Amino acid sequence: MKGLIQRVKRASVDVDGTCIGAIDHGLLLLLAVECDDTKTNADKLLKKLLAYRIFSDADGKMNLNVAQVGGGVLAVSQFTLAADTSKGLRPGFSNAASPDQALMLYNYFVAQLRDVHPVVATGEFAADMQVSLINDGPVTFMLNS
């Protein structure tokens, strides 16, 4: 499981011109489920996501996590992060989970996130989404489970 996180001032996701999820400051999570992923991978990534210290403390050092700054999390499924780009000029998606497996693990991840974090918004699985954000920093990291 891969999660690309971006520290944001705000972020939102629209489907068909309608905003379906938005947060103010916090984390935008682009989440990819790979074919070998399980709930254990989702649990590991969730723990890392919430504990990852990428927000500035009073001294300007990245020392605080999203909960410590009262930030939200916008979780958006993005299977393209599972792409194999090592060969040729077209990405391969053999590493990506099947749509059924990916949906199950995405929903599991979001449910677990909502159980432990107060501000959670999401995109719509497999929809054509337009994601808007103001990247704070910019600060962007790839997390792997």
Automatic annotation (TrEMBL):
The gene is dtd. An aminoacyl-tRNA editing enzyme that deacylates mischarged D-aminoacyl-tRNAs. Also deacylates mischarged glycyl-tRNA(Ala), protecting cells against glycine mischarging by AlaRS. Acts via tRNA-based rather than protein-based catalysis; rejects L-amino acids rather than detecting D-amino acids in the active site. By recycling D-aminoacyl-tRNA to D-amino acids and free tRNA molecules, this enzyme counteracts the toxicity associated with the formation of D-aminoacyl-tRNA entities in vivo and helps enforce protein L-homochirality. This is D-aminoacyl-tRNA deacylase. Its EC number is 3.1.1.96, 3.1.1.-. A motif (Gly-cisPro motif, important for rejection of L-amino acids) lies at residues 137-138. One of its GO terms (molecular function) is D-aminoacyl-tRNA deacylase activity. A Gly-cisPro motif from one monomer fits into the active site of the other monomer to allow specific chiral rejection of L-amino acids. It comes from the Bacteria. Belongs to the DTD family. Homodimer. InterPro entries: Daa-tRNA_deacyls_DTD, DTD-like_sf. It comes from Gilvimarinus gilvus. It is found in: Cytoplasm. Its main location: cytoplasm.
